[in-house]
Specification:
With 420 residues, the protein is of the alpha/beta class. Helices cover 39% and strands 26% of the residues. Strand 11, helix 12 and strand 12 form a beta-alpha-beta unit. The termini are far apart. The structure holds magnesium ion.
Length: 420
């Protein structure tokens, strides 16, 4: 691609010859220099005067410097491009900006197609930028814009990626997740279309996500059958049992555990770091909030009440004479059921799936995460981040705020209101 550097000291008459604007109906005008108020207004006035269409525009302001890129379309026959270019260059000179023109053949124009854009947010440092941009280059993803943000005292980088030239988007996402995991940083890679939609509903898994424990393990410990239950869990993880069969077998071993003992566990359960602040703020901001858990109702109900959640779905432990019978009542909530519930709740509330967030840590969250517009794998077992849009490490729930565009002021206000 030809580039014609134009400094404000270059006589415009030479530039015109270099640019050869007579042959081109489309020109990219790039302007760089110190920022000041009114630059775009002054440019727009010249464009309007010459009846030039502004086909596309990108502006970046950085530390009192400006970078402006304008795609100009010269339409009507006989329209004086020479005089328009002359006026634009003169204006650039007056504004103390360096300018260059770049002819653009119509077939090279990149449309703004959100389906071909990804938004990448990395909660990492320069090392993450280096590692991720290397993967992007290898996979032919083009970085359109990159900017950095600071929130909660941490730094993040946001990139808008054009993936028009990427042959396998899933491989790109999976390689980015892998690189981020290798660097021990958090990462989100979302489709632009879903990213731009405000999120309105969030479904959380409970065990090892909202709370820092696995309810069934704690109950097994209390019932003195921890080793036996762990053995079944291992077999299920190796694929020797399906989820329902393994769950029923483990619950059967809890027979006789008293309701009081279960309540003790419930009262001692620790929330994951940052959850209280997160749920309080989301509730205050008007999100539909709830739990979809493959764990047990006694625990989810207490969280629902405590945080005034809108919904809570979990497996129901059958209780008779103040003790567990070792049976479950109602439908079993497994991976497929979790995804079904997420869909149902979203439909009932008139919320499109693009505006739904799902957060979970386990294999049985994978379908739910895939369904949601933003699927977040939290401190997840390896593999879940392959289907997720974001992967967050343990104790980094505050990154959810940033992914949802929630500011520190929002959080402060929510916490203040909560305390009133
Ligand atoms: Mg879990």
């Amino acid at each position: 691609m030809r580039l014609f550097p134009i400094s404000r000291r270059t006589p415009w008459i030479h530039l015109q010859r270099m640019v050869n604007v007579r042959d081109e109906s489309l020109l990219v005008l790039n302007l760089f220099g110190p920022d000041r108020p009114g630059i775009l207004a002054a440019l727009a006035e010249v464009l309007q005067h010459h009846d030039i269409e502004l086909a596309d525009l990108q502006q970046v302001s950085f530390q009192k410097n400006i970078g402006l890129h304008l795609l100009l379309k010269f339409g009507a026959a006989g329209q004086s491009k020479d005089s328009a270019v002359k006026d634009l260059l003169f204006l650039g000179h007056q504004l103390n900006l360096t300018a260059n023109f770049q002819p653009l053949p119509p077939d090279k124009i990149q449309g703004i197609d959100h389906r071909k854009r990804l938004v990448l947010i990395s909660f990492g440092d320069t090392r993450a930028v280096a590692g991720l941009s290397e993967v992007l280059a290898q996979e032919d993803a083009e970085i359109e814009t990159i900017s950095s943000n600071r929130h909660h005292g941490a730094r993040s980088f946001e990139m808008i990626l054009n993936i028009d030239g990427v042959s396998r988007v899933e491989r790109l996402k999976s390689r980015l997740m892998g690189k981020s995991r290798e660097l021990n940083t958090d990462l989100a890679v979302q489709n632009m279309a879903a990213y731009r939609k405000n999120k309105r509903m969030i479904c959380f898994d409970m065990d090892s996500t909202l709370v820092d424990m696995e309810g069934i393990d704690e109950m097994a410990r209390k019932a003195g059958v921890h080793r036996e239950v762990a053995r079944i869990t291992d077999k299920a993880m190796r694929g020797e049992y399906d989820f329902e069969e393994s769950l029923r077998q483990r619950v059967a071993m809890l027979r006789g555990l008293t309701l009081n003992e279960v309540m003790e566990i419930r009262d001692q359960m620790t929330l994951s770091q940052g959850i209280e602040e997160l749920l309080t703020t989301l509730k205050w901001l008007g999100f539909k909030l709830g739990i979809v858990s493959g764990g047990f109702d006694i625990f989810t109900e207490s969280l629902k009440e405590r945080f005034r959640l809108d919904f809570a779905y979990a497996n129901r432990l059958e209780i008779k004479d103040g003790a567990l019978t070792g049976r479950l009542s109602g439908d079993i909530i497994d991976a497929a059921q979790k995804a079904r519930i997420l869909n149902q709740v979203a439909c009932d509330n008139g919320i499109p799936l693009d505006q739904v967030v799902a957060v979970g840590d386990g294999a049985n969250d994978s379908l739910m995460l895939t369904q949601a517009g933003l699927g977040i794998a939290y401190n997840a077992k390896k593999g879940l981040d392959r289907v997720a849009d974001a992967a967050l490490s343990k104790a980094r729930f505050n990154h959810v705020f940033h992914l949802l565009g929630i500011t520190e002021e929002d959080i402060r206000e929510a916490m203040t209101c909560q305390a009133l």
